[in-house]
Amino acid sequence: MIPLALRSALVLLAALPVGVAQAQPRAGQPAALPGQVQPIAPGTRPAPTLPILTLTPAVPGVHVVNVLGNGFITVAHAILTLSPAQQPHARAMAATVAARVLAARPDVAEVDVSAYDADSYAGFGGPLPLLTASVPRARAAAFEAWAAGRGPYDRQWVNPGPQALPTYRAPDRVRETGPTLTPSGIAPTRPAQQNRTRVQVTGAQISGGDVGGLLYRARRGTAGVAALTFDDAPHPLFEPLLLDLLRRSGARATFFVIGRNAQAYPYFVRDMVAQGHEVANHTYHHVRLPPLTIPEATDELRWTDDLLKTLTGKPVRYFRPPGGDYTAGTLDAARRLGLTTVFWTDDPGDFQNPGDATLETRYRRRLRAGGIVLLHDNAPEMLDVLRDFLRYARQQAVTLTTVGGLPK
Prior knowledge:
CATH topology of the largest domain: TIM Barrel
Radius of gyration: 22 Å
CATH superfamily of the largest domain: Glycoside hydrolase/deacetylase
Helix content: 25-40%
CATH architecture of the largest domain: Alpha-Beta Barrel
Structural class: alpha/beta
């Protein structure tokens, strides 16, 4: 039996202009790979194709519905691209889509909805959605009531408009090859400053621990513990699946959050902290910092810090530059904000989609006590191998924890 409010919404939607055809990208727009948070880096292999749920009959405005599982639960992410005529009805449309997905797939534990402006939609790294929501099956009625204006709902976000958000900056195509100290960005670096930074980098790599605001690994001699970190969080399809696996294993992690993603999906950031994880700074727009002026780079860090403090009520302690690419000036900017810049010892390259077997070989070879593991929370192959990785760490008597949990 379809609830009365939902039947009314379906009647309303049937009269609206039909939006983008389901699962078809708009003409002239790049086809974003499943799971992307920023444009794909040059030389990266295509990501595995995610399963698509086709709703029959089709729902106006639905661009695509992806469905993914982690071996325990299944989650759906519905992307809506709405015309100007549809946008005043975005809440009703989101409620309709969530209800239709839950009815079509009884195994789906949660539906996450992202509703975009059809004319400006450019994938996950483009302009922010108009509206987002996380709808666990048990909360579906509460979400429907909110969409109908009959009460609050805490797992939603409505875009306040560009005047309330940082000016949009397109994310960079960043490929991680290792931490890289760039001699100079747009702002010239004084030789003395550059030399001092090189000494600090060498000291942090050799001794471990926090050396002048730089952290490559735990203090030398650390046993039995390593930091598990995820870049590019949060993603509305992968986040509930990833958090579920970590909860089941008892592992803790540090999520290096892109500010714009946290802005649009704040409830996932709150979930991370509620479940004992740590949130850290990965810039607001996921941009390479060396080409920016120091004030521009500082803004990228400060915007994210301020947002995360507002969402979690806790200060932000750690920062990781996109691609590991930094200058002496950007390190100083991070220090002035009270941030320690964190790199890694173990990067199996999940975002380059090398294949599950390659990832398993790499992380088994590189996992070390005192190390820092780099994964990406939006990479399909990460999710494929994470259960085995968590099991392997336990077998090696290595407890996976947050960056803050490492001896420094």
